[in-house]
Amino acid sequence: MDELPRRALQRGVRLASLPAGFAGRTAVGLGKRLGGRPAEAVAAEMQARTAEQLFTVLGQLKGGAMKVGQAMSIFEAALPEEVAAPYRATLTRLQDSAPPMPAATVHGVLDRELGPDWRTRFATFDDEPVAAASIGQVHRGTWEDGRPVAVKIQYPGAAQALVADITQVSRVARLTGSWLPGLDLGPVLAELKERLVEELDYTVEAASQRAFADAFRDDPDFAVPEVLESTEKVIVSEWLDGEPLSTVIREGSQEERDLASRRYLEFLLLGPAETGLLHADPHPGNFRLTRDGRFGILDFGAVKRLPDGMPPAVGRLLGVALSDDPDGVVAGLREEGFIKPSIELDGRALLDYVSTFLRPLDTELFTFDRAWLRELFAEVRDPRTPAWAVGLKLNLPREYVLIHRVWLGGLGVLCQLGGTVPCIEVLEDHLPGFADA
After folding, report:
1. DSSP annotation of 143
2. 3-class DSSP assignment, residue 260
3. What is the per-residue pLDDT across 75-87, written as a single tens digit (0 to 9) for each?
4. How many CB atoms lie within 10 A of CB 400?
5. How many whole angstroms separate alpha carbon 50 and alpha carbon 44?
6. CA 221 → CA 50, 99, 224, 291, 293, distances in Å?
7. Cα–chain center distance at 83
8. Model confidence over 5-45: pLDDT tens digits?
9. Please, which residues have CB within 8 angstroms of residue 17's CB and are 6 or more apart in sequence?
10. Among 18, 263, 311, 389, which residue's beta carbon has the most beta carbons within 10 A?
11. Which of 304, 303, 299 is nearest to 133 (CA)?
């Protein structure tokens, strides 16, 4: 892959190939069943081919399309097992890998960003990437002073591809949002677009990583690699060894799952408190368990600036909900902009809806698992339930867009990990306003 497909029409055609391809395979599968092949065998073959096409199309497009794929891979935990199983491995691959750039293209980017003598900055540089993300890929090397390094290189054409994807997604989202009476979609799309475009400038990402590295330097529980060099399209940082969360999800011991889950939740709260920044890209490829037991964090392209830390209203409203105060929940959510002035909501129905997400706080220790997440999503997405009607009336204020993304994504990751966590204890220690409430 020399360059990302840039034009909106070209990328739209490839994205459209996903449902079209599925329809074609369905027709072929029906023909095979009529021809005598067992239905189970035909279904398995169709699911395998659909999963492979999903990985190929989203991976090659990268940009916003791959971000969609990565989000899907987090929320596969919410799908019924018979649906999720064929796609789990393929979607998880999107968290860590995608078709790579040729070496010549990589060298061209390094020439432009670090200068034609860039090789003198490295003792070694591996042309084969070790990881790929939505707008860049990572190579391993050795810095001139002997330190192992990770070199993150942006794909040529990433900016045009990302803008094209944002435009396509915004068009679809506006059509979808037209039947959500409680949601003001304009500010939500504006916030997402601003943050996504910001990810294209690696100097901004490097500044965020430096802030986290300064805050957690020599921390016994967390590890953030130091940035050694950065330009708009390249970041060179220290290499961080460790077991990726995707590996812990697949084959980790219960002790590893418990530790990773607790540290994951703690980091989401400590980041804003220590740096004024919320790490806003929660997929498992961005996290590691190091050999000395620390929780390692990578990829700081997506952050939410919270100079005063996590909004105290978050902890306060959680406390109000846990104290079974329907009127207090309505008043608090309305004050924060989650309920527009023109919308009327029954307090008890709203509290029941919110309580669905608060079950981890009903007990001293809570075990996150896929079954619970499937139950949660089934309840709030079923048009026959009261929760469906409540959800249609809720708004998402712009300042909470990335916080909402992180917490929903975090639930998906925690349910993949399957760890047992003292959630109340963690929130009391690290979430402003929660202990008082």
Report:
1. E
2. helix
3. 445 555 554 455 4
4. 20
5. 10
6. 41, 34, 11, 12, 7
7. 21
8. 444 445 444 444 444 444 444 444 444 434 445 555 545 55
9. 53, 57
10. 263
11. 299
